[in-house]
């Protein structure tokens, strides 16, 4: 009983601290973005998505995990390596030429990107919970910013021929 009380006090103290001080996050992508503390608990976002199944291998036959593929897509898009980005999609709905034209026009840039969690939902499907800060220009539109903070957004992946690919389009 005493151990439970100590645990509850520690959790409460951490919760209060998280609401008062927000640590800035830096990304491996060269940007720094400030996020507000999460307004939900881990279980609230998790309750809406399938749980990870135990015993399913994470790596594809190329040695990369769903998180590796997800980060690789963002890195390729930031580098304007359109062929590399296109190759990471599962069944793209555009031809490579259309994809390159649209990507060039949009001029996307992720200032911050992080995979918070990966769930293996079957041997051939996975979901990654991500947060990011993205600047984008729509066709004939003004540039704007998309900020997805915690609890995050789920991006889905499919394993095809033993290799993980991001589903078109990843936002689910």
Q: What's the short version?
A:
By secondary structure, this protein is an alpha+beta fold. Helices cover 31% and strands 33% of the residues.
User: What would you report as the Rg, rounded to the nearest angstrom?
Assistant: 18 Å
How large a portion of the residues is in β-strands, by DSSP E? 25-35%
**Main beta sheet:** 5 strands, mixed
Structural class: alpha+beta
| Largest sheet: spatial strand order | 3-7-6-5-4
How many beta strands in the DSSP annotation? 7
- What is the helix fraction of residues, given as a range? 25-40%
Per the principal axes of the C-alpha atoms, what is the gross shape?
A: globular
Mean pLDDT: 75
**Uncertain residue segments:** 1-44
In DSSP terms (H or I, runs of 4 or more residues), the helix count works out at: 5
SSE run: HEEHHHEHEEEE
Termini Cα gap: 42 Å
């Amino acid at each position: 009983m005493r151990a439970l009380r100590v645990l509850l006090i520690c959790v409460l103290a951490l919760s209060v601290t998280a609401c008062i001080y927000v640590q800035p996050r830096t990304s491996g992508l060269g940007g720094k973005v400030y996020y507000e503390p999460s307004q939900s608990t881990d279980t609230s976002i998790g309750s809406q998505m399938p749980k990870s199944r135990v015993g399913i291998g994470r790596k594809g036959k190329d040695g990369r995990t769903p998180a590796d593929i997800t980060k690789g897509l963002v890195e390729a898009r930031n580098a304007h390596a359109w062929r590399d980005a296109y190759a990471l999609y599962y069944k793209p709905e555009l031809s490579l030429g259309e994809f390159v034209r649209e990507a060039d026009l949009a001029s996307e840039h992720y200032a911050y990107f992080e995979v918070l969690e990966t769930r293996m939902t079957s041997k051939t499907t996975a979901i990654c919970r991500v947060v990011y800060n993205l600047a984008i220009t729509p066709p004939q539109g003004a540039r704007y910013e998309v900020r997805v903070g915690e609890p995050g957004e789920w991006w889905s992946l499919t394993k095809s021929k033993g290799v993980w690919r991001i589903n078109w389009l990843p936002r689910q």
